Amino acid sequence: MQLFVDTADVEEIRELAGTGVVDGVTTNPTLVAKTGRPLFQVLEEICRLVPGPVSAEVTATDAGTMVAEGRRLAEVAPNIVVKLPLTRDGLEACHRLEKEGIRTNVTLCFSPAQALLAARAGASYVSPFVGRLDDVGEEGMGLVADIVAIFRNYRESIRTRVLAASIRHVAHVIEAARLGADIATVPPAVLRQLLRHPLTDLGLERFLADWRATGQRIL
Ligand code: G3P
Fold first, then answer.
1. Model's pTM, two decimal places?
2. What is the model's pLDDT at position 76?
């Protein structure tokens, strides 16, 4: 499973990308608003830092303007993926942009039926929102499991990749990988938590103390 980082904070991306574990980035209007910075400046900087797919979301609600916004966003860099909401117009815009060779990520997916439609429209990625379903008492990971299972039945005709989004904690990431999601997009704090284990810290402390006691150096 690939890991994308779910943020528009360029400094966070710079720090995390240095580890080599960041395959791509997803942004949305809320995440861009949080930075307080101009959208295009943020996107240009992110695309320079990460060569993998960088999702940038349209803010129009009619297909024609979504397509125009998508074309403008795609001009930023070849790795831009245009994020579109899972609405009737979002699907039309997805279909039109993909035909032009612009990759799309259909977002705000809350049902297997919606995911199937995104795939039929030709989306490169579909983003089921796990945490937001959990928030309303539903089983977010159940949605990921359903979509992965459905898409597996049609490997030849469905190329759409399942991008587990609205990930809130480490267990979500592990479960998404267990279920076979293609990608999980993970907030920076959760990505850092994936790295940590108290036994790693304790073990390292012991190795270093024992090494210091020898009085030797490698360099
Ligand atoms: O980028 C979309 C998504 O990951 C949003 O997550 O935590 O706002 O539900 P969240």
1. 0.96
2. 98
